[in-house]
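Weekly structure sync, notes
Attendees: PL (lead), two postdocs, one rotation student
Agenda item 3: pending single-chain targets
PL asked that the sequence for the first pending target be pasted directly into the notes so everyone works from the same version. It is reproduced below exactly as submitted, 190 residues in total.
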Amino acid sequence: MKRKIFLSFRPEFFRPIFYDIKKYEYRKRFCKEATTAYLYLSSPCQKVIGIMELGVPIMTEEIINAHLDNSILKNRINHCIENGEKFAIPIESFRLFKNPIPISKLKEIDEKFSVPQCYLNIEKYKKIFEYINKQELYDNEFVNTHEDIYTNNFGMSCLEMEQTSEFKEKDKIYINDDKYNIVDCGYLTK
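Predicted structure, written out during the meeting:
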């Protein structure tokens, strides 16, 4: 059974995940096992917007030796390592809540709850965990198998991803779809 976590994320870096362009999340510290992450977008959004299934983290230092012949990938991995991003966490799938949950609602349920800078075990907050799991979800936005490493964008920054034609095409589609307005935190413009 996967560990259940509450994962904080900055909204301005969320769209590449949402558009299924970013296949890995990079963190300085993380769990060592696969997780189900309840995704919280920080200010100005301040809402739990959905659930991400994350695979077993890969250590970035272990990947570099397998891809020494690919100089672009090697440089990206070195950049991750230099930034202290030891963990590359495979993003397996993502589902949106039909009604994102404002953080104020979670604090009403348990006044001791506070948003972590990185992540926390959400099962420790039993009432919040039960409330979140009762929320209605859309179907998966995407599913990634991670049978092989996604070398085309492994270690790529969100800014680099936003410059791709794939991102620009998906941006046109998503910002004109009412379903996706629930994650609009001022970063999508029509």
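Discussion points:
- The two ends are 41 Å apart (CA to CA).
- The first strand starts at residue 3 and ends at 9.
Action: rotation student to compare against the earlier draft before next sync.
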